[in-house]
Automatic annotation (TrEMBL):
This is ATP synthase subunit C, plastid. It is a multi-pass membrane protein. Residues 11-66 form the V-ATPase proteolipid subunit C-like domain. Belongs to the ATPase C chain family.
């Protein structure tokens, strides 16, 4: 295989994985911001909201990692 194609494939795969992680990162940031906003409005529900946030962030992170682990890697030979 042409070395230029191998290098281009590696760069393209790296960029694809990097861009794929931007969405969940933005989603987690938005969720955390909304929780902080909710806690400042109603501080008496702080524990319940915080627990729900942590569980939600765990699910978001797990789905992101599992999604990328099940894709076949690019083979450059």
């Amino acid at each position: 295989m042409n070395p230029l194609i191998s290098v281009a494939s590696i760069i393209a795969a790296s960029l694809a994985v990097g861009f794929a992680f931007i969405g969940p990162g933005v989603g987690q940031g938005t969720a955390a911001g909304q929780v902080v906003e909710g806690i400042t409005r109603q501080s008496e529900v702080k524990g319940k909201v915080r627990g729900t946030l942590l569980l939600s962030l765990d699910f978001m992170e797990a789905l992101t990692i599992l999604h990328h682990r099940h894709h076949k890697p690019v083979r450059c030979l």
